[in-house]
Amino acid sequence: MGRWPIICTIHPSIHPSIGIPIGNLTSQFFANVYLNGMDHFIKEKLGCRYYLRYMDDFVVFHQDKKLLLSVKEEITTYLEGIKLFLHKDKCRVYRTADGVPFLGLVIFPHRRRLKREAVIRIPWPHIHQSIQSWPKSAVPRLSLVVPKEMSVMGGIFSLSV
Asked: In this structure, what DSSP letter does residue 82 have?
């Protein structure tokens, strides 16, 4: 039986205008300090061996889907105690074989892919212009292979300089 992860994003339950701006170094520091207790709760109290967290996004892996649903409820209760909640649209249980969205990637057991939204946000014309300004000797040929279903431009993006 394959592994099932629970993927979640945490959001504050207070008014969105209150707090530290995203990207600020202090917000990163305080996220780690504030969620350190949750890390210990998940690893030590719930006994989740395979747990990852980056800022307010986290993943818990286990082979038993029912256990993960129970873990999700325990985490929800813990977070309510510190005035946080799990994002309703971004917290669910996935099969790893189907790909797990995490940190802008879709992670499969043996490969990783950029999420379609991330590919669309890449400023392709700006990148092309930037590469064109490089000295000819710096990069004789550069090819960026983007899977067809992920590409806005349809497959292989190739630049000659």
From this structure: T
DSSP-assigned letters across all residues of 99-156: -EEETTEEEETTEEEE-HHHHHHS-HHHHHHHHHTS-TTT-SEEEEE--GGG-SS-SE
Q: Is 94 helix (H, G, I), strand (E, B) or coil?
A: coil
Residue of 83, 81, 98 lying closest to 7 (CA atoms): 98
| Whole-angstrom distance, CA of residue 117 vs CA of residue 102 | 13
Global pTM value: 0.64
Per-residue DSSP letters for 1-39? ---EEEEEEEEESS-TTSSPPTT-HHHHHHHHHHHHHHH
pLDDT at 141: 54
Max avg pLDDT among 20-24, 54-58, 138-142: 54-58
**Cβ–Cβ contacts within 10 Å for residue 106, how many?**
18
CA separation for the pair 9, 55 (Å, rounded): 9
What φ, ψ does residue 50 adopt, rounded to 5°?
Answer: -110, 95
Return the amino acid letter for 98. D
| Residue 140 token pair | 């004789």
Give the mean pLDDT of the chain: 74
